Amino acid sequence: MNAPLNHPLPLLDLDVLRTFVAIAETGSFTTAANAVFRTPSAVSMQIKKLEDILGRSVFARDARSVSLTTDGEMLLGYARRLLSINREVVSKFIIPEIVGVVRLGSPDDYGERVLPHVLKRFAQSHPSIAVDVTIDQSSNLRRRMDDRALDITLLTNSYKTSALGAEVLLTEPIVWAGAKGGCAHLREPLPVSLWEEGCAWRAGALDALGREGRNYRIAYMSAHTAGQRAAIMSDLAVAPLPKSFLGNDMVELSPKDGMPDIGTYNLAMVVAPDASAPVKAVADHIRATFEVFRETGKF
């Protein structure tokens, strides 16, 4: 048998664990500090305290990056479970039980890139609310809202237009994306990959090409983000994308590369005027998600 401990084991601070998880997920002390609303120095002190308690290093640091040690990877799983249990317990006492189904619409691009993170976190805090998602073009989603087939929808609007009753969540530049080391932007006529009619990014891109008098041909057409990325990565074409959508294997093409400025677009949210408590809870969660993104650049 093991000898009994003479001293009780220390308790881990959930606030410190929250900071630890934020650093692990963002790979940056500075970005994590913004996410948990602390200064970078305060975050560093929290991690030092955690490492002192455990007697192990949880992060390997160098001048450019932060990564988990083997002990840190083990701790991450426990930390996530502890934080999840804490949310569940606190919500039972503080957050009134809200039950219902929310019908949420989203364009493909944000449905692929953002909604998985949003809905995962929402399910943790509101397990009794089911969210049914419809992915479609913004013009079709707006019609579904008008027909009361959706409770909430996200919409992409061009820099020239704004949907009636829409709340702008994000305004972002649209840029020309090309493959890193590619040459599609040098070809004549310019091969372009575009969404279907009604896409805000398409309208801005074609307006920009028209203003510059640049000859182009539509070499690739898809209503899905994955299709656009395939066209870019194969160097078949260039495509208009929000700046935050650029991956490490893409480059932004500027006027120096012979590509005209496109401008900006808005991501907006429309909520049914007679929104129920579950609908309001989803809308508030989406707002909070984009507030964090505007501050940190991370979803």
Automatic annotation (TrEMBL):
Keywords from the named record: DNA-binding, Transcription, Transcription regulation
GO molecular function, one term: DNA-binding transcription factor activity
Domain HTH lysR-type: from-to ranges: 12-69
Superkingdom to which the source organism belongs: Bacteria
Any single Pfam family the record assigns to this protein: HTH_1
InterPro entries per UniProt: LTTR, LysR_HTH_N, LysR_subst-bd, WH-like_DNA-bd_sf, WH_DNA-bd_sf
Gene3D superfamilies: Periplasmic binding protein-like II, Winged helix-like DNA-binding domain superfamily/Winged helix DNA-binding domain
Family of this protein: Belongs to the LysR transcriptional regulatory family.
Protein name per UniProt: LysR family transcriptional regulator
Species name: Mesorhizobium kowhaii
